[in-house]
Amino acid sequence: MRFDETYAGNMFIKSHQNYEESKAVLYGMPMDWTVSYRPGQRFGPARIREVSVGLEEYSFYLDRELADVPFFDAGDIPLPFGNPEKSLAEIKTFVRKVLADDKIPVGMGGEHLVSLPVMEAVYEKYKDLAIIHFDAHTDLRTDYEGEQYSHATPIRKIADTIGPDNVYSFGIRSGLKEELQWAKENGMHISLFEVFEPLKQVLPTLKGRNVYVTIDIDVLDPAHAPGTGTVDAGGITPKELLAAIHEIARSEVNVVGFDLVEVAPIYDHSEITVNTAAKLIREMILGWVK
């Protein structure tokens, strides 16, 4: 997509009309080509935009409103259906352009594999990059059923690229025994089940660092986020995740990009998940785009 084109779809509430004047760029990555259980994540970005009109523009938590933060909604990246590798290449090209213009990429998925090319592009620009990862699953497999490009592999691939000691995972409660063992043996920071307290302890050690944050909506318990592809019981509440977002906002890390992925509206009959996702994105934009 060219940024001089007019996006004809629904736009996230209070998004700015001018790309050049915006500090951040919101975009969708409508892909679910490699999911291993329930597909439908490609419809997440569009539905999150649609329900965002029901949001208040003001955050009680941060005493800030969306009008204070100029962000541009670029719409969804056109991705070739069923072609993971070409789709990842298209995403990376798009994000490189955003970064070259000194803007913060704000992504909406899509399955979690879409985060990989974004993190790689961000690392090209920021060599001291650290990854903060919220998820139910480790996503540390080298492949899934022989497929190297899978929604079960992005964190392992970025860890191999930037070094496992620069990856911090929170809320993990599902994965292979071998994945957890690999994380422990290679110096990756992984917090099982919990999010807020472990994050609070880690953030001072990242003071001054450039950080990319990726949130898989299934870090939330299915009671709070049923609209996702791979539900896993025992998760955290939206209140805990909001507290983590605000703790990052209060910290001295430099958030240079972030995303929220794995929202699948087809399983979200009460629209709990998409409305929660829209609020989380509002809080991330208000808290992390300085």
Q: Look at the helices and sheets and give the structural class.
A: alpha/beta
Please list the strands of the largest sheet in the order they lie side by side: 4-1-5-10-9-6-7-8
Biggest beta-sheet profile: 8 strands, parallel
Output the CATH homologous superfamily.
Answer: Ureohydrolase domain
Number of helices: 8
Helix-strand pattern, N to C?
EHEEEHEHEHEHEHEHEH
Helix content bin:
25-40%
CATH architectural name: 3-Layer(aba) Sandwich
SS strand fraction: 15-25%
Number of strands: 10
Shape: globular
Radius of gyration: 17 Å
Q: What is the subunit arrangement here? A: single chain
CA-to-CA gap between the ends? Answer: 26 Å
Query: Which ranges are low-confidence, i.e. pLDDT below 50, for 5 or more consecutive residues?
Result: none
Fill in the CATH topology: Arginase, Chain A
Question: What's the CATH class, please?
Answer: Alpha Beta
What keyword list fits this structure?
290 residues; alpha/beta; Arginase, Chain A; 8-stranded parallel beta sheet; 8 helices; 10 strands; 32% helix; globular
Question: What report would you give on this structure?
Answer:
- With 290 residues, this protein is α/β, with parallel strands linked by helices.
- It has a single domain (24-288), classed as Arginase, Chain A (3-Layer(aba) Sandwich).
- It has eight helices and ten strands.
- The protein has helices at residues 44-52, 84-100, 115-125, 154-162, 177-185, 196-202, 238-250, 272-288; strands at 24-29, 58-59, 64-65, 71-76, 104-109, 130-134, 167-172, 189-192, 210-216, 254-261.
- The strands form two sheets. It has an eight-stranded parallel sheet with strand order 4-1-5-10-9-6-7-8, sandwiched between helices. The chain has a two-stranded antiparallel sheet with strand order 2-3.
- Helix 2 packs parallel to helix 3 (115-125).
- The protein is globular and about 45 Å long.
- The relative contact order is 0.18.
- The mean pLDDT is 96.
